[in-house]
Amino acid sequence: MTPAELSSTVLHAVRRAVDAGELDVTVPARAVVAPPGPGGCGDYATNIALQLARPAGQPPYRVAEVLRPYLVGVDGVADVVLTGPGFLNISLGGAAPAALVEEILSAGTRYGHADAPDAPDAPDAPDAPDGSVVRLHCPHDLRAVVVADAVARVLRCQGALVRVTAEGFDREWTAALGVRVDGVGPAPVSPPVTVRPVPAPADPLPLGRDAARWALLHPAAHDRPRIGDEHLAQREGNPLFRVRYAHARSRALTRNAADLGFAAAPGPVPDAPQELLAALGDHPRVLAAAAAHRAPDRLARHLVAVADAALPFLPTVLPRGGEKPSAAHRARLALAEAAGTVLAGGLTLLGIDAPDHL
Fold this sequence. Notes:
Blueprint: H1 3-19, E1 33-34, E2 44-46, H2 48-56, H3 60-72, E3 77-83, E4 87-92, H4 96-107, E5 133-138, H5 142-157, E6 161-166, H6 171-177, E7 183-184, E8 193-194, H7 209-217, H8 239-260, H9 274-281, H10 283-292, H11 296-310, H12 327-349
């Protein structure tokens, strides 16, 4: 069951409870599902009971109790646990990883884009997917231009039309960092969204395109970025290295598997790390939130979470010793390829290369 399907399942449970007379509410247009927060459990959690409590005239926990039986019996749902004031924590059956992996591999690096197949509803979305233009304007500052460029990329992947203007622009920024603007000069007449992050304390251009963009985009806009050689270090302490290394390792596994005579095939992965599945399933929501809040740092930190969840899993993918490739190996390889696909797509949106060899 994919996140989109689970969201629909939650809404169907609400509808069944309403039809049975156990809830007197209007069925909402969507139900948000996301990885459980602190104190939660399972694969996904939803706050639908908190959302419906006031119109239902009942405490959130009671609403959750009403909905739980309508979820537990659904194919693909293994268990539902109530936590906190009324969160429904949902554990999925063994087929869940296969469906999620198949969805990711089908969409490719466009997984999570607004026009990708079966893209799930998300709590946040860009505010101009209807043909109107999101206007971003930034001062004559390199970090502001890089952040605006990344925001524009993420907004476009969510279906928005974007125009970026700047009060000043140096041509070397395009050659060195791949940024561009649509106009240079004062802010346009129509009120734009001003992109004004804390400026970098030093010139990032000597770091090169990828490391410089990461150094400027990984911190939140209100944080001062660090500009130093730590972004070039080929070691685990460097988040950019971990993200690119996890991607390169996933690609290497595909090549090695081909040498062994087998390819990826989505299927049940009993030992799949739940942190990785949750991070992959959360990718569409992260893209929508990054677009809505004009915050590419959310995407950068999410890629680190995906990489950190994937790296311990990758060494388990290939057969060992005289072991012959099996369906389990093909399923693990598919999950590894899905992780690499999400990392590649996210890095591309940040304007950073995702090399197959590192």
